[in-house]
């Protein structure tokens, strides 16, 4: 992904110009959080430290960018000159990758001169949004998969190349075993996986001829798709061809029909014919509900290939992230529109990992539990190296195994909110009175 | 966007290898279509000729790509050598940009040696999917907007940078007036627009001070957001400051509260105070339903800023595009799984623009009406220059004004299907019998 400071809303640049023009360049703090969870979600999963570092680093305007901005006949020359030299010099805090979060919990805090912190907003949100969206959806899939392998097959129906990469990354981070997306393999070292498509089978004069061509080419890697014509015949033909060629059959994929019945039948036939190690892979419109249903019905599945519904988080395709000013020049800030509650001041979140209860405090307060916001950028420079994706994944899997069952239940909604500290509440009330008074 | 042939599913590469290994490299035809429309859609809008040309051009493997593929220890050396020299040499047909389409109508046909046509699949779909998805959603917004200006404010909650660009492009193509996405302005010449955010207002000690700072910086471009505190007071303060500075007030933006009542009040106050040319811009969770409701209630709105719900097509966040093999080595192909109907053979779509009725034919049949699939790539080279985005937009607006009202009704679903020619039906029946027989 080529990030650019032009991946921004025009008003970020006009506001920046107006801040500078009016000498309003004091320190500000913005926090990124959600007021409520999307439909069907009991938690969200934070992911994106690496992207935050990239965003910070990418906030440099090229001569080309400046030419374009100049062509808008909107900005004064002094501002364009300023942009030529612009660098972000602020400090950024973020949750750890793979950490669960809940409403009102700031997962990122940016502290910088206000015009700088403002410029970060759009690109930061644009990059974190799909990661959090998909990690949160995919974690639900993992929650019901009872240790079975799940892989990402969504690339063709994601919202473009960046989305495709982020789906592969985010789903792997929460426990998927791999992706079909080859570029994600190259860029993020996500294991790449694949089977074979119906079109390959249909391209040959017969199913057996197609199986033969595939098994001859990949004698030790072949998962054959068996439902192009009749799935039961397909399984038998796959076995016949594997025997005929004397090669291993890694598995069979079933992409349509009654997945429960067909997988039982497939297992029976494969076992009977001596192909006990051949895996059964299911795909076709799967999501956490369908997977839970298939596994609850006792289907002897080894792996699921999930696509569109997870890759677009189709039941809840966005997270209502907001990036709110909480302090400027030492003065805590709050906005109180109907239905748009927020807590003022720079805050921290403490988690008690034995109960998974959180506490939202001011940064000046102390609390038991683990503080979740950590400094990752100081004066514009990274002060951490993000964990490798496989480490993030290991950590997530371990943590997730200890998350209370009600949070992981995909059918019932729980309202898991942080406890709000005395300090935050007091400040909230104080500002509320000032706003009502003013 | 850096397109790469690695933006693909692993199985496209393994199938390619198996096709080559078994000498199966005859001419094939694949068609891209949908079997059914997404929820709440009466039509889809095709967009993406430029992207198809870019995809075709981008199918070159870099030495780096080859090294990565080699590291998978999956592919034979001869295949990696082949990929080093790979170019797409096929022919591509596509609908015109901005053309409406319906179930079973191929909007793209790829004719190429089968291993090449197969490789195109994932990247082609990944690139066209968000364009079609968003153009189709945004056209519904345009359908209810009664000529009012609509602009795209969705960038922060789209699924990454590529999605953000494609949302800006697709929504502009169907009649939006602009986008907040500055990079889309630079890359696609979409007009960029913006107002000011609540955070800017809150950063100052008072609303008037903030308005002053903004109006002084942009005396002839300012749309002020007036609902940070009390919207009625906000409007009055905006007027006061504009008068005090003797500058124009381009407009006011209202982002929360009762948009109908507030816009009426705003219009009244602005007119009374002599700001008749100041526009009223509404935003905040808007989609086609909300816009229709606001306009039906007589709100005196000039423009709408729409964000997340359109930028993610939130009520239907994916289009179930399929790319199906329809012919190989001159032999028509069909697959008949339950619920997965398709028509075999290379096809054309003819449209009667006086009735908007379509006819699906074999390419060998003739028909009255305009043929919609046109050759855009021959032997791997573009044979057209895509229309400029502004021309696509003009053409769409003109065509869309003539689309029958039931199709544009956002509340009721119509089932608009092409008539299927004798030739297609005959071939369908013939292949059905063969499949049942086999």
Structure in words:
2 copies of one chain form a homodimer. Chain A has 438 residues and is of the alpha/beta class. The longest helix of chain A has 31 residues, at 114-144. Chain A has 2 domains: 10-133 and 324-401, nicotinate phosphoribosyltransferase, CATH 3.20.140.10; 136-311, TIM Barrel (Alpha-Beta Barrel), CATH 3.20.20. Helices cover 42% and strands 18% of the residues of chain A. At the A-B interface, helix 1, helix 3, helix 5, helix 6 and helix 7 of A face helix 1, helix 3, helix 5, helix 6 and helix 7 of B.
The chain pair with the largest interface is:
A-B, 102 and 101 residues
The percent range for strand residues of chain A is: 15-25%
How would you characterize the largest beta sheet of chain A?
A: 7 strands, antiparallel
The main sheet of chain A orders its strands as 13-12-1-5-3-17-18
Helix/strand/pairing class of chain A, anyone?
Answer: alpha/beta
Helix content of chain A: 40-55%
> How does the overall form of chain A come out from the CA principal axes?
elongated
Describe the oligomeric state of these chains in a short phrase. Answer: homodimer
CATH class of the largest domain in chain A: Alpha Beta
Q: Determine the mean pLDDT of chain A.
A: 96
Radius of gyration of chain A: 26 Å
What is the CATH topology classification name of the largest domain in chain A?
A: nicotinate phosphoribosyltransferase
